[in-house]
Description:
Layout (H helix, E strand, L loop, with lengths): L5 H4 L4 H15 L1 E3 H8 L3 H13 L3 E4 L2 E4 L1 H11 L2 H6 L2 H13 L6 E4 L8 H4 L6 E5 L2 H8 L4 E5 L3 E3 L4 E3 L1 H9 L2 E7 L2 E3 L3 E4 L5 H9 L1 E7 L11 E4 L6 E4 L5 H9 L3 E4 L1
Parallel strand pairs: 4-5, 4-9, 5-6, 9-12, 12-14, 14-15
Antiparallel strand pairs: 1-3, 2-3, 7-8, 10-11, 11-13
Helix pairs in contact: 2-4, 3-4, 10-11
Amino acid sequence: MELYGLKGAFMLKKVERLKIIQESLKSQHIITVKELSKILGISEMTARRDVESLSEQGIVDSFYGGVSLSKKKLEHEKAITYNIEKEIVERKNQKMRIAKKAASLIDSNDVLLIDAGSTTSAIIDFIPNDSKNIVYCFALNILQSACEKENLSVISCGGLYHKNTQMFTSDEGVELLKRARFNKVFIATRGLTKEIGITTAESYEIEMKQAAMGASKQKILLLDSSKMGKAWNAKFAEIEDFDIVITDSEVEEKYVKMIEELGVTIYVV
């Protein structure tokens, strides 16, 4: 969204523009140079110069025509703010509807991979007790839930435990996923944009997610509407890599249309 017209931009000093860029990144996490030029009402060349100034100060990282808060700064903010137990209770009703729809797509005897995440973690609760499935997982909360159900056979990828996401990662886990064959994978994300694609905040998640997607016949993305139009520094896929996207009814129509135009089925629940 353009906040300043061209006329107003001449009144903004460079220090003011740099402050606006930093504030914008706190909410969007990744912004393209083109978007910055529109936000500030300046040329793309001037936007690149502003980004370069912030990069020299170690405040931002620039890549692929875009800019994000520096990894150190972002990791510091994440360490303070992100916790999966907190995420599970936020927008809980929307996440439950998304998880219920995801579970409705599961057929008996499907081999599944359920990704770490606050929305994906609820899928297990909605799998019918008479549905026989093999469930692969690499998150502690999903492992515990799946093991409590008699009708599910569970295969877990071990490794280094990350407390804030309850996720395990390891080279052996990646290789296990690559050798597997899934009917469906349910993937979580922290951001979706047309310009950047599908992103998450933790770079350690990338290999596990990509390995799971590469071994699956059908790829299903779950995200609540608050994550639409946002991006983080760890990109792991394009929107069109997925067969289905499931989100909640608060999603803006422009995102529904954009996803459909990419040839991806979207369910709004």
